[in-house]
Design brief:
Blueprint (H helix, E strand, L loop, with lengths): L9 H9 L15 E6 L1 H5 L4 H4 L5 E12 L5 E12 L7 E7 L16 H9 L6 E5 L17 H21 L4 E10 L1 H16 L5 E8 L5 H4 L9 H16 L6 H4 L19 H6 L11 H8 L2 H9 L4 H8 L10 E6 L12 H9 L6 E5 L1 H14 L1 H26 L3
Helix pairs in contact: 5-6, 15-16
Length: 423
């Protein structure tokens, strides 16, 4: 493990970053890491996930990070995140590091360096309390990042955000009195499953001597983005996710449309390019304020038809040379051969990231290469068993909660089982 390969004084990094220095080492710390709190074993054991995670073995230091990482054109910028460091008398050994990528976020100020955040709490319970160090990035364009936008579902910048968080975690662990054993596991959920797999691919291709990835658990990720562009039925949450990626890819590639009004219908065309992520609005208030369709109970198809110009949407679905489709192809993850162990996990009832479009296609791409190090798990039966009463009483409520609430803990349980086998 080359923990200090990219070492540079924190003050020097801060000065270089402030001056836009392009030679600042990637993953260097822009600010001194701050210990926000220590979550005790008792606190973790009182939480709702103890039945899945088991009793906590360690207390967990929650440490804020701010680190150097490139933008989509390689320009110097920064991203923030959190390091969860196991501590306590029973947790003195050097820890393996889990690098985590979060799910889709629409709230620009949100950071995972927040002990009250539910996603941070899940990581603390499932991994850090069990002896893993965890680093989780906020991505470009969120929280303390100075980047002007979030490059949503852009594989290359997702990968660098995750990879540089690993470098930052190595610096911060030393500074905060911890130690890492050199083994790295990658995981992420939803958008994060796409990001963690993009990082896994990049590390194994170009950084195997620096980062020792022993396993990747990629959870409910949209790996087959070009395939999703051909769907005739819109996914749940379409009004958030699809305009998010179209406007992000337009900022990156500049080819998706020549005028926003040729792509989006009014009134959404008036603000859509700067709407996401949002400094004040949440998923609920984006809809409730009328900034996105859904306030009147529109179906995903109706939301699609309200947002996009009909000719623009039709061309995406039917034209193999459509620039949105070609951008999606650039960000597919079907083209690599993992060397370390890989787990794909999802629930077959997921209406937002349907496994039939993504997980199944990804597994088939791996199977075509006769790989023996890849496994795939469907947690739908468990979700139905635990939440069957909700399904029977209100299918709409059940499927609304499926991707964001029900599915993640069960996939993380599968991920931890894989990591336990290689740590």
């Amino acid at each position: 493990m080359k923990t200090m390969k990219y070492g540079i004084s924190i003050l020097g990094v801060a000065l270089l970053a402030a001056c836009g220095g392009s030679d600042t080492p990637l993953g260097s710390l822009v600010e001194t890491p701050v210990l926000l709190t220590t979550l005790t074993k008792a606190q973790l054991n009182a939480g709702p996930l103890v039945g899945l995670s088991g009793q906590a073995k360690c207390d967990v230091k929650v440490i804020s990070l701010n680190y150097v990482t490139p933008g989509v054109k390689g320009e110097s910028t920064n991203a923030s995140g959190v390091l969860l460091l196991p501590t306590g008398t029973d947790c003195t050994a050097a820890a393996p590091l889990v690098a985590y990528a979060k799910g889709t976020d629409v709230q620009k100020p949100r950071t995972l360096a927040n002990p009250q955040d539910s996603e941070t709490g899940l990581l603390a319970a499932m991994y850090a309390g069990q002896g893993y160090a965890v680093v989780a990035t906020d991505y470009l364009g969120f929280a303390k990042s100075n980047y002007s936008f979030h490059p949503y579902l852009h594989a290359d910048s997702e990968a660098t955000s995750v990879i540089d968080s690993i470098r930052a975690a190595r610096h911060a662990a030393v500074a905060m009195g911890g130690s890492l054993n050199g083994k790295v596991m990658l995981t992420g959920y939803s958008q994060g499953g796409h990001a963690s797999m993009a990082a896994h691919r990049e590390i194994e291709k170009n950084l195997p001597g620096e980062i020792q990835v022993v396993a990747g658990a990629h959870l409910a990720g949209p790996y087959n983005l070009s395939g999703s562009m051909k769907l005739t039925e819109a996914i749940a949450g379409y009004q958030f996710f699809v305009p998010y990626l179209v406007t992000a890819w337009q900022k990156i590639y500049g080819t998706l449309y020549s005028d926003v009004k040729t792509a989006f219908q009014t009134p959404y065309s008036d603000w859509i390019e700067t709407l996401l992520p949002n400094p004040t609005l949440t998923y609920a208030t984006l809809v409730g304020s009328g900034k996105l369709p859904g306030m009147n109970g529109e179906t995903p198809n109706q939301a699609r038809d309200a947002l996009f110009q009909p000719a623009f949407a039709a061309d995406i679905a039917t034209n193999p040379q459509n620039p949105v489709y070609l951008a999606a192809k650039k960000n597919d993850l079907l083209d690599w051969t993992p060397k370390s162990k890989v787990l794909l996990c999802g629930g077959s009832g997921d209406p937002t990231v349907p496994p039939a479009v993504h997980q199944t296609v990804m597994k088939a791409a791996f199977d075509a290469k006769n790989l023996t190090n890849v496994s795939s798990v469907d947690v739908d039966a468990t979700i139905r068993y635990v939440y069957g009463e909700v399904l029977n009483a209100s299918p709409a409520s059940y499927y609304a909660a499926y991707h964001g609430t029900y599915e993640p803990p069960f996939c993380h349980q599968q991920a931890k089982a894989l990591f336990d086998s290689v740590k």
